User: Fold these one by one.
Assistant:
Number 1:
Amino acid sequence: MCALRVNNYLLFSSYESEINVFYINDLITKSKDHDVNKIKINPKKVNTLKGHIGPIPKIIQYESKKIISCGWDETIKIWNLDKFSCEDTINNVGDKLINITLLKDKITLGVVLNYGNIKLLNLKTKETLLILNGNYFIYELNDHRIVTIFHETYLKIININTKRPELLYKTSHDSKISGFVQLDDGRLITCSYDQSIKVHGFVSKRDKSKDAEDYIYKYGNDCFYITYKYNNNDIQEKDYEF
């Protein structure tokens, strides 16, 4: 379900509740004529991490020799790749876990639940810091606010400190957003099931891109609303609340 490289290891999670670990260092051989198309990778399986009950949709790197996994068994596990063992478990997170993201403070974990809600957890205390109404993705911006997908084609930006949304932005995508990433200059790139990729300058209420005439702006309840004009399915402000 998920692949991850950590140092000299290549890890694969599975539907069978296991994480398979392969060693890949010094096992890349190149043909004599140095043709990159003939490069062969011969990884060797060295261990299997067992502990989850059911599929493991996501694994991420935690520290230099540790990973974090989430499972449909409602648990999060921290694994030590030196000992190939589970160091810690967070139980009963709530419903099947779909995705996890480690924030830049290296302590806060964003966890996406099957029914769409997102939890922020402290990995040290195991405390739930915040619950958000999102949609399967969570991403930390350069200024440490977080962004998630909302109502399929909206981006919701939340200030973790105030625990409130600061911006709700209706993109011009015609179908569900499937992922996003932020550029160094602050703009967001989104991809969608409508087979398009779009670049957005609306990442704060202080920044409006040159195509601003295509959008409607409103401010209220401590939140800035940006809506694409040519969409006839605008949701009401009451739907923006947690």
Number 2:
Amino acid sequence: MVGAESVLVTGGAGFIGSHLIDRLLADGHRVRCYDNFTSGKREFLAHHAKNPNLQIIGGDVMERAALAEAMKGVDLVFHLAANPDVRIGATSSRIHLDQNVIATYEVLEAMRAAGVRRLGFTSTSTVYGETDRIPTPEDFGPLFPISLYGASKLACEALISGYAHTFDFETVSYRFANVVGPRSTHGVTYDFYHKLRADPKRLEILGDGRQKKSYVHVSDTVEAMVHTMRMAKAKAEVFNIGSRDAITVTEIANLVVAEMGLKDVTYHFTGGVDGGRGWKGDVKVMRLDTSKLERTGWHPKMGSAESIAATARALVDEGKKAPVK
């Protein structure tokens, strides 16, 4: 990304997408946010209302004509539109196929038709499944996801690689750890905060509380996304994005309780499924090897605990502005 460019961000009104748009606009790029607003929120971009470099387009990536129109004159696409709910795959098996895999195909086809050849794609650490190599590097394999969500993102990566080599695209797939920060609308920190607002004395924790994973702040995440698009040259590049450490679910609960200023909270562990998992498809232990990305000059500014605490503080601050629902 050299100089001002025209950038299309699918899912741009979502948690990560809105932060990415903040960064792109700050860097002087012209940005089109393309979002159907099923989970994205217009208020996440309201502070850019008077910025002439931002165009907000209401549309679904499955709507070919609308997507084709949005793709005109674009130099680069960041494709974030997806269904991020890992748990839903156990009860609705087609959702991740439609909203992740087929949706990505539609984006790739629209890019091909419009002559756009550069893509940043938000993948996930769940493509690795359960590994015996912690921290896990990008070249670990074979990959056996244990959730339909992880499977769908791995299928997207394969599809993107196929398009990249067939049609000379330059692509980067980002395998995220758990991304947290302001504007998050799901995830363990978000869930704990809202459970404790409803009952400040008791907290239900899915699983056995010993699940241990890496968490990365959204500010570090978007910095890595923009950084890698500046230097990516391969047709189909893959980078892990995460912190250098990991934290247990119980430790997260302790941090959220502390940031909310609560005392004498009783934890109730559900015991979970399949040996203490929070749900079917929940990877119990995850930490990514980020050395490949760090060799390019990017380094995370926050660790997992700091990222969780900052997210909880943001939720507390936001909660002060709104009544309990």
Number 3:
Amino acid sequence: MKNYGKVVVGLGLAWFIFALPASARGVFNNGENRFGLAVAFAALTPILLFFLWFAASPRFRQFALSLDPRILTFAQAWRVVGATFVVLEAYRILPAIFALPAGYGDIAIGATAPFVAWKLADPGHRGTFILWQFLGISDLVIAVSLGTTAGLRVVQDAPITAMTVLPLSLIPTFFVPLFTIFHVICIAQAKGWKNASLNTIQPRRLVNEPMTTGF
């Protein structure tokens, strides 16, 4: 399990090392109001690779499911920096069609992440915990979708260029896939909580059963 941890950290660093110089070289720059294909590729590739690895390798799946869901959820608190999008929209540096939904969505998820990690990451709140994770994924999907197509939708609004160059370009190309993977792992873990709780309750019923039949 420790080896998997090292491999995962190494792959994460490798992707960051790819995203950083690629951004510096303008690979993701979308100043011509076209579809942000490079950004979409950078955001989706790590997620697809994770799903393939998770499905194909039982040992990796076991490692992923052994991670602490509270820590993974608390890490989403970083998303309060989405307030930056709202501020940049006010100065017409980012288009409103992207900045407002993405910004306020990230603020909502980031602000509630500590509470969810502290109070809801347990079998007793399984449904609410999963719902919050899905809302977090929806926010990321909406943000990337609007960001990659913003230039095609509103010509007279502010350009999306700021999100495709450093430092903001690291958000869709590195942090979006990272946080999406965290959400997916938490959902997969929570789906097993019900079975785990049933397994702990069942032995008690078996022990008490002879006592009830004896009377």
